[in-house]
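Backbone-to-sequence.
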């Protein structure tokens, strides 16, 4: 019995003093504890037992252990703490409600593949985002199965991205605005979206979970697998451009790369584990992005001024790599779209904005001219 009583009061103390996270509930807890303690010391119970004739007796008395004045004083203090705690709690609740009413989430969704899911990302569980959400849908899907992505339409839709985010966040403090971006689209579109949003202070990235058929935030465990060292064995002196093949979810088709870029050296950055579903960790994605940034810097140190990027990665990781690319300091970058059955496996690219070209441009691989 003693153990049960001790366990009960231990759990009560833990709940009263440790579970509440704000000052108001703590005051309420103190007030309740004082009242319970006063009741406890004001009651005396006596239990006696006689073994000779198996006689039991039990008596309860009140009022003798603590004076009536002290009891009333303790009750008043406890009630006062409870009242103050409730007022503080209501004020905190009111402030938090006002804060939540100011905070918004801008959910950017890219739909660029014919089989892109129609489930709106704004209604999905994307992590700790404000419930007040605004949806920016950039839909440039081909109208029919087998039809190719239109680079012109892609750029037309993405050209509105920054202005849409700025319009929705106008008049609000930056700390009250969160931006979430994701979707399924051509690699150049995903990378460009990341670049366009890299100035946003609070950006979350989400992706489509093919196993569950739902949008989800990048919230999984880290498996500690990273990338192999950048392979620069083909680079020679006096080169100013290179093909950077980045294999993260699938191996990049190197023979197709050599066919599309004859005479240009290829450098290869490859993940230790090539899988599509192993990039749900925020920490891992940031580490991979850091490796990508380091690879760019290594190429810059070797005199590279133009990079042809061919990328095999999940959509969310393509966006994250885009957020790490510094258009003011890094080389000219062309990000290519892969079409396995095309005579030219990488038929077009988007030249990303840089210090000399503020507007992205779609480039034909064969001619090198804008599309």
């Amino acid at each position: 019995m003693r153990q049960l009583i001790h366990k009960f009061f231990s759990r009560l103390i833990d709940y009263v003093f440790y579970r509440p996270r704000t000052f108001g509930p703590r005051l309420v807890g103190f007030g309740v504890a004082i009242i319970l303690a006063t009741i406890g010391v004001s009651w005396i119970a006596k239990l006696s037992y006689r073994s000779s004739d198996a006689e039991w007796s039990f008596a309860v008395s009140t009022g003798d252990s603590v004076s009536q004045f002290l009891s009333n004083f303790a009750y008043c203090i406890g009630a006062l703490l409870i009242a103050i705690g409730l007022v503080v709690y209501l004020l905190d609740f009111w402030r938090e409600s006002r804060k939540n009413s100011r905070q918004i989430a801008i959910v950017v969704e890219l739909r660029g593949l014919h089989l892109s899911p129609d489930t709106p990302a704004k209604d999905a569980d994307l992590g700790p985002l404000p419930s007040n959400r605004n949806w920016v849908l950039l839909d440039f899907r081909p109208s029919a199965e087998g039809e190719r992505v239109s680079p012109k339409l892609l750029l037309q839709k993405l050209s509105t991205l920054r202005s849409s985010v700025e319009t929705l966040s106008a008049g609000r403090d930056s700390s009250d605005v969160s931006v979430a971006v994701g979707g399924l689209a051509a690699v150049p579109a995903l990378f460009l979206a990341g670049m366009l949003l890299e100035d946003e202070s609070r950006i979350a990235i989400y992706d489509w979970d093919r196993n569950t058929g739902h949008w989800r935030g990048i919230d999984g465990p880290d498996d500690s697998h990273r990338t192999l060292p950048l392979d620069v064995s083909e680079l020679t002196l006096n080169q100013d451009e290179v093909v950077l093949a980045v294999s993260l979810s699938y191996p990049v088709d190197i023979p197709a790369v050599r066919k599309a870029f004859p005479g240009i050296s290829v450098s290869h950055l490859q993940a230790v584990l090539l899988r599509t579903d192993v990039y749900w960790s925020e920490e891992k994605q940031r580490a991979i992005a850091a490796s990508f940034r380091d690879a760019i810097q290594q190429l810059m140190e070797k005199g590279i001024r133009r990079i042809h990027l061919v990328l095999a990665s999940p959509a969310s990781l393509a966006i994250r790599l885009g957020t790490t690319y510094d258009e003011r300091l890094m080389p000219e970058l062309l990000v290519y779209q892969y079409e396995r059955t095309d005579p030219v496996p990488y038929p077009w690219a988007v030249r990303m904005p840089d210090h000399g070209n503020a507007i992205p441009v779609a480039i034909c691989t064969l001619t090198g001219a804008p599309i």
